[in-house]
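2 proteins. here.
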Amino acid sequence: MNTRRRFLTQLAVGAAGMTMATRSWASVIVPKKKDRLGVALVGLGYYSTDLLAPALQLTTQCRLAGVVSGTPAKLAMWQQRHGLPEANLYNYDNFDTIANNTDIDVVYIVLPPSMHAEYTIRAARAGKHVWCEKPMAPSVKECEAMIKACRDHGVTLAIGYRLHHEPNTQRIMQFRREQKYGPAVRATAEAGYVDPRKDHWKQKKAMGGGVMGDMGVYPLNAIRYGVGLEPIAVTAQASTTRPEIYTEVEETMAFQLEFPGGATAAGEASFGKRMNRLRVGNTQGWYELSPFQNYSGIKGTTSDGVALDAVVPNQQAKQMDDDAAAIMHGTPLLAPGEEGLKDTIVVEAIYRAASSGQKEKVG
């Protein structure tokens, strides 16, 4: 058994212990009298401003309690718009003093991937639960450090895989668990859009850019939860149609996965073309979602005509409510740090395969 698989095994054992231990220390970290957890958003870009902040107005288990930004003007705007107290506004220099703020229970990291590990670890040391946007981090080593820091400081770590909270996706997962259509044989997943930006972190290698550092986790994670197995080998091809923009990282990545037992999958992610579909073929039928990763309107069907058309008023609100409830009640998270680590292990193998032009083992 290699080192990473041994690490995951140890984490599984530790997670089981944490679930039991949560019941004993939850009253210390999160006072029972709290009806909602206070959430501080770290990074006030588009996702925080246009999606998470409005979603927090719809939640029942948590609320917006604070913000962290390196831009004073943004802090002032958020304070005025959301009625936040001065004591709950932080910058990146004084972030660690959040440890003294009992109004904030959870820190939600919404920064470029290259910054996820640093702020997850700092938040854990401050005694705050952590929600971290996907992808978890650019490297396996960073993911492992994030998990360890949260475990060592007795806080939970959830990764922002909102689709794990989406009901149509959950039906797909249920089909897989129950093997309603038999074991998986072949899966395909594609996710992409045309990004017109020319100077963004997604185009900068040092900030965790490249399509596998953003859209790539959608088809990869979907294949994993659609098939229900961990890949053992991968081939991959990176490409760019706009080399004047994507000078450091890939614009598009295609990858092919092999699983134990002979199942295979093909995935693709792109910043240069529109794609949005997941399909899993099994020995006794198939199921698919198209679109499978939109912020709304996810729908699909199965080979025997089952309609997958449940509607969620707000995906981000449901994700945050689910994660807050898990913290308060000491129940397992739907997408803990280990889930992000598993994707990153495969992402590293995809990059190795794209570079070598050869099949690479995963792990």
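next one coming up
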Amino acid sequence: MSSSPAKLAEVPELTVEQAPELMPERTPERTTDPRILRTRNLLQQALVNLMKEKQFDSLSVQDIAEAATINRATFYDHYPDKFALLECTVGTRFNELLSERGITFNGTCTAALRAIVLGVCDFIASAQLLCTDRPGQMEPHMESAIIAVVRRMLLDGLEKHPSAAPTSPQMIATTTAWAIYGAAKEWAQTPNRPPSSEIADTILTLVHPVLALIEPSHSAPA
């Protein structure tokens, strides 16, 4: 069962003020200054609006700045390029999808891990950015943003359970996040793909052995 084409603009929105921790590392330092937050929100919304009409590849920083009613120099005060803006926009919207579903991961809960996997599948399917013949410039930045959110969520959960295992929580979280994204991407590109609820169980089976490399001393019920 495949989803009808959609664009990034159709994914649930989230402002930078709601998730400032998702600002990419290469962007300016996090802030609670309302003027800075407002400008970043304007830029993200301008990008979303422009992508309703034009392909991301054809957009320029000047196009985005004008749509946000700011000057080009102000854009560069907040983002080094349009790719950093794209990553932040995708990341915040994906994080909102997870937040709306009330998903948290405590490091051991299988149900929560499945919910994360399902969220990745649903987000990719709704955006329809990886199911085209010409993914263009967007795919690697969408990939980076989603993997960063998943890695952070997994790592936060794993670090709650100290382990003497030789593999670090950082390595486990990174490997698992990449595996989840890669499997979800493969599913999204499959003709007549099954529902995400079905493939989520398959992906969970694939990544569970990686997470099992860290065995917390006190396991929480799934």
